[in-house]
Amino acid sequence: MQIGILGGGSVGQTLGAGLKALGHEVMLGIREVTPETLSQPRAQARPLGDWQGATGARVATLAEAAGAAEIVINATNGRGSLEALRSAGAENLAGKVLIDVANPLDFSRGMPPFLLSELSGPTSLGERIQAEVPEARVVKCFNTVTAAVMVKPDLVPGEHDLFLCGNDEGAKEVVRDLARALGWSRFVDLGDIVGARAQECFLPIWVRLWMTGGTPLLGYRIVSA
Ligand SMILES: NC(=O)c1ccc[n+]([C@@H]2O[C@H](COP(=O)([O-])OP(=O)(O)OC[C@H]3O[C@@H](n4cnc5c(N)ncnc54)[C@H](OP(=O)(O)O)[C@@H]3O)[C@@H](O)[C@H]2O)c1
Fold this sequence. Notes:
Helices cover 40% and strands 18% of the residues. The strands form 2 sheets. The chain has an 8-stranded mixed beta sheet, sandwiched between helices. A hairpin with a 7-residue loop joins β6 and β7 (114-115). The protein is α/β, with parallel strands linked by helices. The chain has helices at residues 10-21, 35-39, 48-55, 62-68, 81-88, 90-93, 125-132, 147-151, 169-182, 196-213, and strands at residues 2-6, 25-30, 58-61, 71-74, 97-100, 105-106, 114-115, 137-141, 162-166, 187-189. The protein is globular. The structure holds NADP nicotinamide-adenine-dinucleotide phosphate (NAP). NADP nicotinamide-adenine-dinucleotide phosphate is lined by residues 7-12, 30-31, 75-78, 80, 83-84, 87, 101-103, 105, 143, 146-147.
């Protein structure tokens, strides 16, 4: 499939490389494609020019990546995600499965981050994205694990769950299929896109577990009677 990834950080690069390795065509979108942005160092990720050379995937603008895609992944910083989707263009997202991996985290006061007030409480980033692009089939998924685990769940030993939610059942099945190809087998469906409130609330817990346990290689396992 043709997959468009919005965002060139650790998540965009890791998911892009993992999906390309599975045989998908991947185009990764950033705001500006220039020699400077392709060579600029990125936190916990490579310069995108190096990533492009290593993976054989393409770096393009947000609108090009979304326009060419059958499936779009939002891997932008949560604070900028709505603006990123506006730049990608509603017409380039209409009818498409849009996997929202982003978290609305505020790092302005250092660690630990907290949820951005305008994107939490009685709303969530996932819901705001669905409202921003009503014709896209938004599925919130992968946001509760670190990038490396998204494409290699067995980095965390034992069985653990991948959460997802969204309004479109068919879109959720498309996302489960993509995740299965990456090695995921256990899914917890949190219902419609309102479930994004709960999914995004896992992040403060996740960050705390990382800080106290010393490893980002974490997974959740839900058990019930
Ligand atoms: N890191 C992880 O392991 C992890 C795990 C789960 C979920 N997440 C979530 O996944 C998302 C990506 O995380 P990340 O660590 O890869 O990188 P990040 O630093 O959070 O985001 C990087 C990307 O966001 C883009 N961006 C920021 N503001 C934008 C705006 N206003 N318009 C368009 N694009 C904008 C940047 O674009 P330019 O390149 O054009 O500057 C950059 O490519 C975040 O929401 C994060 O919370 C991360």
